[in-house]
Specification:
Strands 1-2-3-4-5-6 form a six-stranded antiparallel sheet. It folds into two domains: 5-33 and 153-296 and 364-469, Up-down Bundle (Outer membrane efflux proteins (OEP)), CATH 1.20.1600.10; 43-86 and 91-132 and 311-349, no CATH class. 62% of the residues lie in helices and 17% in strands. α9 (285-307) runs antiparallel to α11 (355-423). The chain is α+β, with helices and mostly antiparallel strands and 477 residues long. β2 and β3 form a beta hairpin. It contains 13 helices and six strands.
Length: 477
């Protein structure tokens, strides 16, 4: 059963090894977006430390104990747990609770209120950038860059898909030509063999000279050679389609595999230049990929502009603390305090030259200008290729009309020469020439159909709608 074009396209998309590799690039890019967003996930922090300290007491410790040679020792159990993170506005925050159990020379004294001492503290600390590193443009720059990279990778993958479909369609159309051309060459062989038989019959009847049989036999040899070349051409196109549609190429001598040829059109469809141009700039993946590069330069430019500002950070913290003879009492001791402790202020850092940041800003501006030029160049290239594709379609259609007329004329000429040969008004050589002319005209006619279809494929490659035209949906996980 002949294979349909859609089946070949689906097989290529599922089996093409290069396409399978390209399909992984968007997956990598999507993971990098998730990775960049992960920077804003809160962190849980916990630590436990045990400290033992023993040394001769210093002057301060002596005044505290009133003992000259008494050695000082201390054992501390330190616990700390909390959460920290950064917000898309550039706000850094931390919420933490600290608890310590202290057993030392001081609190062992009878004058000490607690032995051991349990100290706790809970705090909220916030740092907000006001200039440098403030706002979404600075804080989310890495996320936005990876998002544009993800969008670009999807367009690049779509480019690869369209190329694969176009390659399969071109090979399909050429195989259809090979099949039809094989029929034409077989018909030419049959006509040449019939002429040889007829000339031999006329020679036997004394109505024709031996040279006429020789001329017919020469034409038969030529037709048989053309048939052999047609078979070889068809075999090559079979191999091309096997290579495009199978994950592993296996050599095969199967000459019974054919395509149906139903998707080969013989007349160009009605085309609206204005609609196709709009579709091209909305769907062409290479052009859209260049637009993503502009978005990338916009992100880098916005970030570079932010980085030339001085660093002005607003810092603030508020904390509560307690001291008692047990963990629970230490926490409840918070209520005994007249108010929370706090810290507030501004930290300013001003680069003396800022050469590096200004150089990066200048570079970002140049890259933006370069990206805009590349998009403009891409537009010009697309418009030129579009015009070429439209002219190729128009030329192919004109050739179809002209070659079809030549086929009709060649058939009429052959019929006329065959009648004249019956009447003895022409030679077998002239009939052979007419047979050859008809065979070549029929082959050219099939070739013009292929040229028209390949020109249409190239047009839809440029427009970026080839998958939709072939009812293929491109999906990414």
């Amino acid at each position: 059963m002949p294979t349909q074009l859609l089946d070949l396209i689906v097989a290529a998309l599922n089996s093409n090894l290069e396409l399978k590799s390209d399909r992984l690039d968007p997956a990598f890019a999507k993971l990098r977006v998730t990775e960049a967003l992960g920077a804003f996930d809160p962190n849980f922090n916990f630590d436990f430390l045990k400290t033992h300290d023993e040394h001769p007491q210093n002057a301060v410790q002596f005044l505290s104990t009133g003992q000259l040679s008494y050695s000082y020792h201390e054992d501390i159990l330190h616990y700390e747990a909390g959460f920290s993170g950064i917000l898309p506005t550039g706000t850094q925050w931390q919420i933490a609770t600290t608890a310590e159990r202290a057993d030392n020379t001081f609190n062992e004294e009878s004058s000490s209120i607690f032995h051991p001492e349990y100290t706790t503290m809970s705090k909220l600390e916030v740092t907000q950038a006001l200039l440098k590193n403030f706002g979404f443009d600075a804080t989310l720059a890495e996320v936005h860059l990876n998002q544009t990279a993800f969008a670009k990778s999807k367009q690049d993958y779509r480019t690869a898909v369209i190329k694969t479909i176009a390659d399969v369609m071109a090979a399909y159309f050429e195989m259809v030509f090979g099949q039809e051309n094989l029929k034409v060459k077989q018909q030419a062989v049959d006509l040449a063999m019939h002429l040889v038989d007829e000339n031999q019959r006329r020679l036997d009847q004394g109505k024709m000279a031996p040279i006429d049989v020789t001329d017919a036999q020469e034409r038969l040899s030529e037709a048989q050679e053309e048939l052999a070349l047609a078979k070889n051409f068809l075999s090559h196109r079979r191999n091309t389609l096997r290579e495009l549609t199978k994950a592993e190429y296996t050599s095969s001598l199967d000459d019974n595999w054919y395509v149906d040829g139903a998707d080969l059109v013989h007349q160009a469809p009605a085309l609206s230049r204005g609609v196709l141009l709009l579709d091209m700039f909305e769907n062409n993946p290479s052009y859209l990929s260049n637009l993503e590069l502009i978005k990338e330069t916009d992100v880098r430019l916005a970030y570079a502009k932010n980085q030339i500002y001085p660093s002005v950070d607003l810092k603030g913290s508020i904390d509560w603390n307690g001291l008692q003879g047990s963990w629970s009492q230490s926490f409840t001791d918070y209520r005994q305090r007249p108010g929370a402790d706090y810290t507030a202020g501004v930290v300013v850092t001003i680069p003396l030259t800022g050469r590096a940041d200004h150089a990066r800003l200048a570079e970002a501006k140049i890259r933006k200008a370069q990206a805009l030029l590349n998009v403009k160049r891409s537009e010009n290239e697309l418009l030129a290729a579009f015009d070429t594709a439209m002219r190729d379609i128009e030329t192919a259609q004109d050739r179809i009309n002209l070659v079809h007329a030549s086929v009709v004329l060649a058939q009429q000429a052959l019929d006329s020469e065959e009648r004249r040969l019956e009447s003895g008004l022409t030679t077998s050589y002239n009939v052979s020439l007419s047979q050859k002319d008809l065979s070549q005209a029929l082959s050219r006619e099939q070739g013009t159909y292929v040229d028209l279809n390949k020109a249409l494929v190239q047009l839809y490659v440029l427009v970026g709608t080839l998958p939709e035209k072939e009812h293929v949906e491109v999906k990414l996980n």
